[in-house]
Amino acid sequence: VQLVESGGGLVQPGGSLTLSCAASGFLFSVYGMNWARQVPGKGLEWVSSYYADGRTYYADSVQGRFTVSKGSGKNTVYLQMNSLKPEDTARYFCAAVVGTPHWGQGTQVTVSS
Fold first, then answer.
1. CB 113 within 8 Å of CB 11
2. Residue-level pLDDT at 74
3. Left (φ > 0), alpha (ψ -120 to 50) or beta: where does 28 sit?
4. In angstroms, rounded to a whole number, what is the distance separating the alpha carbons of residues 49 and 34?
5. pLDDT-based confidence at 72, cuts 50/70/90?
6. What's the chain look like in SS3?
7. Would the pLDDT of 87 be above 90?
């Protein structure tokens, strides 16, 4: 199982970013995918999940601003982030539970003016 995140960067408050997570090594279509984030010195915070049946779930802190989706025909899950706030600054990870939890290396998102 390999998960590779990309798309992070520096963005101003109110801006948007789209994160991508390219997955390989497992049957992507039958597993749910998850996004989480972590600020140095703090615990991991769950952000969003995309279930295999298409259901999506979001943390209250990002509900209405973030959208998770899967690429059509691609083993990729996306996290569209709009109306970004400084408190969204974190390292973002995608994860899949394929027998055991698997994590990518993460991508840094910094929201600052």
1. no
2. 86
3. alpha
4. 4
5. confident
6. CEEEEECCEEECCCCCEEEEEEEECCCHHHCCEEEEEECCCCCEEEEEEECCCCCEEECCCCCCCEEEEECCCCCEEEEEECCCCHHHCEEEEEEEEECEEEECCCEEEEECC
7. yes
- The answer for residues whose C-beta is within 8 angstroms of residue 51's C-beta and 6 or more apart is 32, 57
Tell the burial category of 104 from Cβ atoms under 10 Å away from its Cβ (0-12, 13-18, 19+): buried
Pairing, β 90-98 against β 66-70: unpaired
Please say whether the dihedral angle defined by the alpha carbons of residues 96, 100, 106 and 110, taken in this order, is positive or negative. positive
Q: What are the Cα distances from residue 104, in Å, to 60, 75, 97?
A: 23, 14, 12
Confidence of residue 17 (pLDDT cuts 50, 70, 90): very high
